[in-house]
Every structure is written in C-alpha cells, then in structure tokens.
Write a structure and sequence with these properties.
The chain has helices spanning 33-60, 83-89, 92-124, 131-143, 146-157, 163-169, 183-207, 212-220, 225-236, 238-253, 257-262, 276-285, 289-319, and strands spanning 63-66, 76-79. It is mainly alpha-helical. A two-stranded antiparallel sheet has the order 1-2. α5 crosses α7 (183-207) and α10 runs antiparallel to α13. The termini are far apart.
C-alpha cells in the first residue's frame, strides 16, 4: 500500500542538489592548470630524481668531515661552507683532471663532429647508395654499451694482443696506446667511435628538412656538390650542430666509463683522478661524500658556464 505525500510537504533534495534544487557544478580547471595536471608525473619524477640530488649535493658540500684522535672515533660533519671548495681548488690532482678533460673536449669534440658532419653529407648526397645500411652501420657503435666498447678496445690496445700493432709492425710502427702522453687520445678514439655515428644520424635528419626546391635551384644556378654543401646544407644544419656540440661538451665533462675500464691495464698511466668524475668517485670510496659533492658542484658550474657562453656566441652569430 502506497502512501501519498501530505499536501505542502517538501520532498527530500536528491544527492548533488542545492537547497534551490539546482545540481552542484564543480568549477572546471583553468586552461593554465590543465597542462600542469598532465605534466604532474614528469614534474614529480624530475624533482625527485634530478633536482633533489642536486640540492642534496650542494647542501652536503657545505660541510667538511673532521676526524680526531687516531681514527678510533666516528668522523663528524662540521659546517664549513668554503672548506671543501678551497681544498678542491688547491688539489693538484683535481685541477689536473679538469685541465685534462678540457683538452679532451677542445680536441675530440670538433674532430668527432667534423667526422659526423662529413658522413652525414655523404649519406645525403644524391649519388649515395645503400643509405639504410650505412645509417645502421654508423649507429651500431652507439648501441654498444660504453663499458663493453671500452673492454673491446682494451683488447685492441693491449701490447700483448693488439691486432692494430701487429698490423703496423710490418711497417715498423709501434703505437704505445697506454703511454702517459697517448692514453688520453686512446680514450678519445673510443668515444669518437661510439658517438660519431649517433651525431651523424642527428645531422642527417636535419639535412632531410632542407626543401628540395632550394637544392634544385642551386643546381640550376650551376652550384656543384661542394658549393651546395658549404653554402646551403651546412648553414641549414647549424641548429643540429649547436645541439650536438653542447651534448658533446657535457658528455666530455662526464667522462668516466672508458678510462675506468682501461685503468687496470694502463700500467698506471690512468690514475684514480684521471677525470673529475673519477676524482669524485675516489672521494666517495674514501667516505668523504662532502668533498666529492664539492667537486661535482664545481664541475657542474664550469660546464654550465661553458654551455651558456657557447649558446650566446652562436646566438649572436645567427642574429648577425
């Protein structure tokens, strides 16, 4: 049996309705908030995996490790903002590693990018054949992990088993790959072998964006292959060259895998402070994390200054 509502009775408001009977409407997100919502996962990971370690290293570098007595007591951290930085700037081994990496970058980066540019221009030539094969062949060394590549080249460099020296021996040539004056360039050769093909692909991709009409107009005007490459193709890939240069400079500052793998077979020519990263790693192995952090901060600041300066110089040339 149903019961009818008494006259004048007010029916219960359904869920989600106001007293006036209108449904509740949630305020939509603003246009500025929607992109942030989609970027939230990246921002969280970026802050946790990138910003947090940088901040922790910067804060840790402001303390120094103090040991007292005969080392029987636990070391203590003392707040000393300039202590680690002063020590690093007076550390001949660390300063030497910075100079070694700077020399490495000044020589290896232009050679590698010049080789990559030449290979990309050859691949882009109209008469080139087997482009797919050569693109894959050039990229394969990059696909080999750095540690594995260094192990392969350590065999190639070994005085006892080097097939390179065996081949050169017929001409009376012997290359001391692990000599103190040569070992840096032995490392540079491994890095060039690993990364030249990768940079070639980036530059080659930039060459593909040049309009065919521009190249055809140059051909009609009588420009040869060399003139077209120098006056049209090279300026067109300027942005790719700037990008690969900056990445290569940063990679040079992070040089670690190749010299660390070659160190055991280098007969002492590669020290534990051969590169700044290796020097910082040695400080970590010794338990001096604040000093390692200070070295890392100095290296990061120098790389940042070099990168910004390079961007400004190239930016001025483009605007000129």
């Amino acid at each position: 049996m149903s019961h009818s509502s008494a006259p004048g009775a007010v029916a219960a408001a359904p869920p989600g309705a106001r007293a006036s009977g209108r449904p509740v409407r949630h305020r939509p997100l603003s246009r500025a908030a929607k992109p942030l919502l989609f970027c939230a996962p990246f921002l969280v990971l970026f802050a946790g995996m990138y910003l947090a370690p940088i901040i922790y290293a910067a804060v840790s570098s402001l303390s120094t490790i103090r040991r007292s007595g005969l080392g029987l007591t636990a070391p203590t951290k003392v707040f000393d903002p300039l202590g680690n930085y002063t020590r690093a700037l007076h550390d001949d081994a660390f300063i030497g590693s910075l100079g070694r990496v700077a020399l490495f970058g000044v020589v290896q980066v232009p050679v590698m990018l010049g080789l990559a540019l030449g290979l990309a221009l050859l691949l882009d030539a109209k008469s080139a054949r087997g482009k797919g094969f050569f693109r894959l062949a050039g990229f394969l060394p990059y696909a080999v992990p750095g540690v594995s590549a260094a192990l392969i080249w350590s065999f190639m460099y070994s005085p006892l088993s080097s097939p390179v020296n065996r081949f050169l021996a017929h001409a009376g040539v012997d290359v001391p790959f692990f000599d103190s004056d040569v070992v840096l360039w032995s490392v540079a050769n491994i890095v060039t072998w690993s990364w030249a093909g990768y940079n070639t692909i980036i530059i080659y991709a930039a060459l593909q964006s040049i309009p065919a009409e521009v190249l055809e107009a140059a051909r009609v005007d009588g420009a040869g292959a060399f003139r077209t490459a120098w006056s049209i193709k090279v300026p067109a890939v300027r942005g790719a060259l700037v990008l690969t240069t900056v990445f290569s400079v940063i990679g040079s500052a992070q040089l670690f895998n190749e010299p660390a793998v070659l160190q055991p077979v280098s007969a002492g020519s590669i020290s534990s402070a051969f590169t700044p990263i290796m020097s910082a790693q040695s400080a970590v192995a010794a338990g001096n994390y604040p000093y390692a952090a200070a070295q890392s901060v100095i290296l990061a600041l120098l790389v940042g200054v070099v990168s910004i300066t390079f961007f400004k110089i190239t930016g001025r040339r483009e605007s000129a």
